[in-house]
Amino acid sequence: MLAIENLQLNTQGKLRHFLSIEGLNKDLLTEILDTAESFAGASEQSIKKFPLLRGKTIVNLFFENSTRTRATFELAATRLSADILSMNIATSATSKGESLLDTIRNMEAMQVDMFVVRHSLSGAAHFIAQHTAPHINVINAGDGQHEHPTQAMLDMFTIRRVKKQFAGLRVAIVGDILHSRVARSQILALNMLGVEEVRVIAPKTLLPAQVEELGVSVYYDMHVGLKNVDVIIMLRLQKERMNSTFLPSENEYFKCFGLTDEKLKIANRDAVVMHPGPINRGVEIASSVADGPQSVILQQVSNGIAVRMAVLSMTMNGNRGAE
Amino acid sequence: MLAIENLQLNTQGKLRHFLSIEGLNKDLLTEILDTAESFAGASEQSIKKFPLLRGKTIVNLFFENSTRTRATFELAATRLSADILSMNIATSATSKGESLLDTIRNMEAMQVDMFVVRHSLSGAAHFIAQHTAPHINVINAGDGQHEHPTQAMLDMFTIRRVKKQFAGLRVAIVGDILHSRVARSQILALNMLGVEEVRVIAPKTLLPAQVEELGVSVYYDMHVGLKNVDVIIMLRLQKERMNSTFLPSENEYFKCFGLTDEKLKIANRDAVVMHPGPINRGVEIASSVADGPQSVILQQVSNGIAVRMAVLSMTMNGNRGAE
Amino acid sequence: MLAIENLQLNTQGKLRHFLSIEGLNKDLLTEILDTAESFAGASEQSIKKFPLLRGKTIVNLFFENSTRTRATFELAATRLSADILSMNIATSATSKGESLLDTIRNMEAMQVDMFVVRHSLSGAAHFIAQHTAPHINVINAGDGQHEHPTQAMLDMFTIRRVKKQFAGLRVAIVGDILHSRVARSQILALNMLGVEEVRVIAPKTLLPAQVEELGVSVYYDMHVGLKNVDVIIMLRLQKERMNSTFLPSENEYFKCFGLTDEKLKIANRDAVVMHPGPINRGVEIASSVADGPQSVILQQVSNGIAVRMAVLSMTMNGNRGAE
Q: Which domain holds residue B83?
């Protein structure tokens, strides 16, 4: 744990890599949210460009495909005036049998400044941060079933914009907690920012062992778990879990764990509904809820750009501070 | 029809989406051609950049592959100083089962300014324009067998540059009219701009029913149809129509409907030859004609950039006017 | 030969295409190295952008996949402020059956300024340079088994940075000389720049017939061939040569022609080890050597950007001079 903490922070305690919520603290998360707020305000104006990263080269190292995350990182980098090199590694160098480390060594020799890494293996971004040159920043854009910290921070940003503060909030995360790097990062961030309670609601087969140790209350029934909650975060159900030992059927899942208007009424009247997307309509969420007045799902997408701009510029600064 | 017209124009009658030639009028088409003319002149100089769309984000939403059209839109956007996000949707989000509408909603939440849409379904660009946020412009880069209006306008631009005016011109479109969105847009534009006559020359199996209602004269024989024409537009023959019920063989097709030097002599002496590309040499056109002195095929490609710059900048302006 | 020479140079003898080392001369190669040196120095500073190619459009025409080469050309172009259009031709227009010449004609009609070409056919870049419009520069990024001149020049740059001068140097190139465009360009450049001796070390099955005519001494045994050498260039072994008539097995190859610490000791004490990458650890080179103190493999990658910046800016200038 300590190693990870040190890896993410420079000697003045500033962010220089952004790898996981684990190892950070409330002050740093708040600084990210405040920085994102300044970008979000500005991007509502007509010209959305900042010269902060002019002349810097950011490499998108996507070992796993992701339209949305790649697009928002690319837009965030563009709006900070950085140059972007997008590498779809699944279809390139490593197919010539090159190791991850050799790929990294070669990219860093090209005098780039930052890696945004998405990889199907847990720990890939940490591994890269441990082994890359000291002047390079690493951002985790999702690693295996470990963490997806920029997604968690855009969720925190969305919650803070709507609810103003974290103190006193009850947040329920519903769905496949077991396989979700998003849920893991969210639980860590929510607890760090001091919400009243984090609940997970899921069938037993989709919960990790000893899940309570993450700092959550466990519910198996939405009719109970949604009572008094202020924020409901629905997780995407990976279709490949279906017809497996994990789940009986889509219909059955929707009946028990899908969010409908009727179940939404169990929560507090002003509860908001979130989802990291892309949504499966009629599987984990009813269309009427996804498109309804309590949904902030599309605001999450918008907020993703401001939060990623914050993380890109803060780590680049943190790196300067450390040199 | 009225709905489409309103959709493309703002309350002052200015272009805000560019979805189809249908619904526009002679004045607007002429404004596009005049605007393109100003860009075409400037791009013959050394530095080809205009700051008109600085800070704007244009998303290429290509649900169907197209090297040439994507490249010219990308170059047009770059020369207007816009930022471009290229989404090859065939291989991305929708493969996770997301609907077209959810894809659009998510992209617009990323605070982008314009969608350039290519889709295999007729009406896709209209559908998107109907459902997207009011500040976003939509450009149709080809939808199914419906329209390909920027291709038609670059063809009009090419004709006007060579022939100076539309009045009095006889234009023949030769080939697979039935499946061609290009031909549909061309026929509409030529009639709107007031040419003397639009002819279609094709085998019966490649003509739509009631084709005369589009405002064309119908010919089944090039030796008759090419008499007195000033402009010959050859259409690409999709190889997949071959060995089908539509056509006997490539050789047979070339013999009847391929443009050779001999058949070209039937037309007016100063007739020009056009083709939207990519050409099938020896299928719909002889190499000697494609590369000959009457061919303006490569000028069409050059003109495509100026015309797309015109459409991008006019719709962006039209949007401002409407707000 | 004369035709090729003329093709690469303008009437004042300046570079306007960069197609092959063959046809150039010592002065031109030295000018490339000096120009690269000025960029390399500058890129060690914080902001790495030069406005030299602002408003110019460079098209990456990659008919063959290459992560590394494409990335370094893209970075070099970006750092010169050019606009880049990346065409992965393998998956695009030519799949519609368009000929290479038609693809080129169409791209040049888009008013672009430069083609960076990679193609599996020897002579493809020459062919394009012969047929393209006079204002367009062509850079060979590797053509079949013919030449890879920017790779050779980054290798020369790396050697000069470490060894200060070429006179007196003994250079050994080890591996699959027969199929290597890299080796061919290196041999030509090393001889042009006046090294003392170029050696090739390989099994007979991986040497071209009459290889001595290229100006090399031939060795079949590393224990003999590495004696007194100052620079060792290891070539990548294409795995597809294995289990063929060319080679017995990877293990056998490594035993005979792989560079180990033990064999490295045969060379001069201050010999440097080079490799064009990506490396096959344990096939042509031991990890301890690739990562060891005598390896300059990653410096080669860094130098590739400065050298490509030099070639891009010199050809663009040479073109201006010729007009």
A: 2-147+304-322
Q: C181-192 and C26-43 helices cross at what angle (nearest 10)?
A: 110
Check CB contact under 8 Å for A279 and B112.
no
Number of domains in chain C: 2
pTM of the model: 0.92
How buried is residue B33: exposed, middle or buried, by Cβ count under 10 Å (0-12/13-18/19+)?
buried
Give all strands of the β-sheet with A114-119 in edge-to-edge order: A83-88, A57-62, A114-119, A137-143
Residues B96 and B227 in one domain: no
Query: Do residues C157 and C238 share a domain?
Result: yes
Q: Which residues of C touch B299 (CB under 8 A)?
A: 109
C242 in A contact zone (CB under 8 Å): no
Tens of pLDDT, residues C231-259: 999 999 987 666 567 777 888 899 999 99
Report ipTM (2 d.p.): 0.89
Residues C159 and C97 in one domain: no
Burial A239-256 (b: 16+ CB within 10 A, else e): eebeeeebbeebeebbeb
Residues C184 and C164 occupy one common structural domain: yes
Touching subunits of B (3+ CB pairs, under 8 Å) are A, C
The C-alpha atoms of residue A215 and residue A185 are separated, in whole angstroms, by 12
Residue ranges, chain B, pLDDT below 50: 1-2, 93-95, 321-323
Contact status, residue A105 vs residue A81, Cβ threshold 8 Å = no
Give the per-residue pLDDT at C179: 93
CATH number, position A98: 3.40.50.1370
With the CA atoms of A145, A150, A155 and A157 taken in that order, what torsion angle do they form, in degrees rounded to the nearest 10?
160
Residues B281 and B224 reside in one and the same domain: yes
Same domain, C84 and C169: no
Of the candidates B89, B97, B110, the beta carbon closest to that of A72 is on B110
**pLDDT tens-digit map of C178-217:** 999 999 999 999 999 999 999 999 999 999 999 999 999 9
Please confirm, yes or no, whether A148 is among the known catalytic residues. yes
Do C88 and C227 have their domain in common?
no
What is the structure's pLDDT at C46? 62
- Chosen for mutation from C68, C157, C302 (greatest number of chain A CBs closer than 10 Å) is C68
What average pLDDT does this structure show over A301-315? 97
Rounded Cα–Cα distance for residues C280 and C282 (Å): 6
The pLDDT value given to residue B43? 59
With contact defined as 3+ CB pairs under 8 Å, the chains touching C are A, B
Residue A23, CB-side half-sphere exposure with 13 Å CA sphere = 21
> Most C CBs within 10 Å: which of B65, B67, B78, B300, as the mutation test of the C interface?
B67
Question: Mean pLDDT of all residues in chain C?
Answer: 91
Residues C173 and C264 in one domain: yes
